[in-house]
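Justification of computing resources. Each target in the renewal requires a structure prediction run like the one illustrated here; the chain below, 189 residues long, is used simply to show the kind of job we budget for.
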Amino acid sequence: MLNELVEIIGRRALDAGFYEATTQQYLSIDNQNWPDGDLENQLGYWESSFASILLVDITTETGAEALRKAKLAETFLDAAIVQRESSGLVIDGYLVLATTQVSDEFKAFLIDIERDIRFVRKHVVTWGANGWERYERITPLGLERFDEHVEPAVFNPDDTGYIQLLELLAELGSEELAERHGKEWNLNE
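Resulting structure tokens:
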């Protein structure tokens, strides 16, 4: 189950310009931000020229224990980023928290942890009835690459959808039309 998630994140990371890396280089007694050695629940780590992504398992029975694991991983990733930034680069950090159990208590935790952007941005992925869910929301990984060549849509002036869209654009303007369309989707579900 977790191996499947590592594959998904790894493929998407590669598509977005990341490469799989090791965190061993950031683990030393001299690292004042993280002198504790390996992070026990780490599943994967990827880097690019602008960011680091750390994937950890926070599956546990209680929200308090999941929060403890998340905070440890956050501190670990922040310490790695501080070391990467010592060369003068500015590095973004993305912490991906994976869980295979989602209780009612944990649902409240999801919202709270993703709103907390202290040190690094956090994303929670969960195991659901259809497999891994919410991984599409991981900001730097964007959209998944398609293996097949897809022909672009051809404009058909007789298509009523195109005509309605163009009429609304002319009537409302681009900003108001975008706001109207944005209200139709609940992106925070």
